[in-house]
Amino acid sequence: KAGVTQTPRYLIKTRGQQVTLSCSPISGHRSVSWYQQTPGQGLQFLFEYFSETQRNKGNFPGRFSGRQFSNSRSEMNVSTLELGDSALYLCASSLDPQGSSGNTIYFGEGSWLTVV
Amino acid sequence: GQQLNQSPQSMFIQEGEDVSMNCTSSSIFNTWLWYKQEPGEGPVLLIALYKAGELTSNGRLTAQFGITRKDSFLNISASIPSDVGIYFCAGLHANTGKLIFGQGTTLQVKP
């Protein structure tokens, strides 16, 4: 079955703009989580959605938001982009909510965002 | 942000050597996951561990879930050049349910 699919793979935006990234989880998976990866900070948790509800949120400003649709596909949005938002944004999917016992989490290939 | 303590930070070894890396924390985890990430790609799951004391193998890779639930290790035997990459541990925090990542171990293998 298809893995976690993220689009777009690469994009360049200008400071002040906004961006929307998309993630399609593995078929049947209802949990989608988003992470930001940068060389200096490593992998940082943004938020998790399960059955269209945000279950958990990391320590990111309100400019970072997300949502999940009824087919479990998820989008994340970053408004008023800053240079420091340049990063690899990773989406992960799992069958059950992230904290569930026995759960396994799979990542997509990521979306590379460069803010200039 | 909150992270696991993963060591070593980097390793440069000869092909054929065995490799060992570990992650420790003061917190308790319900699940340990080990991933490998290659340049420009997302992390790929290598091994998942669900019970304290669990020892699981995947080919030349072996990982264990520490008895205290606060640590895990990954061993790679007889390394080959394609083992090159960054290896991450990740633990599902028992209290918050969040997936917490180690800082990564960069592995380079000399043919």
Give a description of the structure:
The complex is a heterodimer of chains A (116) and B (111). Chain A contains no helices and eleven strands. By secondary structure, chain A is mostly beta strands. The model of chain A has no long low-confidence stretch (mean pLDDT 94). Chain A has strands spanning 5-7, 10-13, 19-24, 31-38, 42-50, 53-57, 64-68, 74-78, 87-94, 106-107, 111-115. In chain A, strands 2, 4, 5, 6, 9, 10 and 11 form a seven-stranded mixed sheet that branches. A four-stranded antiparallel sheet of chain A has the order 1-3-8-7, with no helix packed on it. Chain B is mainly beta and 111 residues long. Helix content of chain B is 0%, strand content 56%. In chain B, the strands form two sheets. In chain B, strands 2, 4, 5, 9, 10 and 11 form a six-stranded mixed sheet that branches. The termini of chain B are far apart. Chains A and B meet through strand 5, strand 9 and strand 10 of A and strand 4, strand 5, strand 9 and strand 10 of B.
Q: Enumerate the spans of chain B where pLDDT stays under 50 for 5 or more consecutive residues.
A: none
Q: Total number of β-strand segments of chain B?
A: 11
First-to-last CA distance of chain B: 37 Å
Number of helices of chain B: 0
Helix content bin of chain A? under 10%
Question: From the alpha-carbon coordinates, what is the Rg of chain B to the nearest angstrom?
Answer: 13 Å
- SSE string of chain B, helix = H, strand = E? EEEEEEEEEEE
What is the average per-residue confidence, as pLDDT of chain A, rounded to a whole number? 94
Which percent range fits the helix content of chain B? under 10%
List the total number of helices of chain A. 0
Classification by helices and strands of chain B:
mainly beta
